Amino acid sequence: MPSTVSAVSYDEVAVGTEIGDRIFTLRRSDLVRYAGASGDFNPIHWNERVAQEAGLPGVLAHGMLTMATAGRLVTDWAGDPGAVIEYGVKFSSPVVVPDDDEGAQVSVQGVVEKKLDGGRVVVNLTVRHQGAKVLMAARATVQLS
Amino acid sequence: MPLNQDFVGRSYTSEVPFQVGREHIRQFARAIGDDNPLYHDVAAAKAAGHADLLAPPTFLVTTIPGSLGLPTDDPALGLDYSLVVHGEQRFTFHRPLVAGDELVVRSTLASIRPVGRNEVLVTAYDFLTTSGELVAEGTCSLVSRGTAPPR
């Protein structure tokens, strides 16, 4: 079965169209859940002692969890995540997740950066935590209808 | 210690296929806080044109054998895991991944190059079904901190 198509119409988006602006919260419990689901049990993602011994500022969110979280802006916009045909990021700054109920806030903004042939668009994501860009060159290509 | 360049170009293929399971997709979707019905409800996924539950795009990372996306844990590579950070990750889909797919992952250590004092290891992946259909491709860059050869 080929890639599916988003219900979003190619003709109704333009370069600069904003696809969303949201804040996601990551808590320690989310990191433990992600470790279990992904199989990445590196203790720097759940153990303060190990994180400090490794010279880190604290327990860090898995880069892949940050990538997945940012990607939700795109898949929610597309409706059908099967319409995402490419997704790539560079990890530029870690997300430190404190041992409290507030957790870490990650803001995600998405803008249509380019319209390609064949009804495809490139969405550029801006992903920040405490003002720092945690992902760079975060881009997804989506098949629109 | 710089990494061992002899490993560049080596390919590894997973020995046991990775079966994409419904409950694993649901568990992964819950772990990323995503209640998209196409990840949870088989009828909704089929109504949207998928053969079964759809896997989230980054679910692919769970199918890669080994740790940190590295295809080998051979000590001769010279990698100290405590020095490694994730640099980049990319996935390209030829079609969406769905429950029931059985994937064989072919991983190739594409390059090891110095960037300043660090070294960057790039691994390229082909995600194939057991019948040989290329479902997706991917790349992962790992940064090995401070191991570049002195210049």
Automatic annotation (TrEMBL), chain B:
Q: State a single Gene Ontology molecular function.
A: (3R)-hydroxyacyl-[acyl-carrier-protein] dehydratase activity
FAS1-like dehydratase domain mapped to chain residues: 7-137
- A GO biological process this protein is involved in? fatty acid biosynthetic process
Q: Which Pfam families match?
A: FAS1_DH_region
Q: Which Gene3D superfamilies match?
A: Hotdog Thioesterase
Q: Which family does it belong to?
A: Belongs to the UPF0336 family.
Which HAMAP family is this protein grouped with? UPF0336
Protein's recorded name: UPF0336 protein Ga0074812_102294
Q: Which organism is it from?
A: Parafrankia irregularis
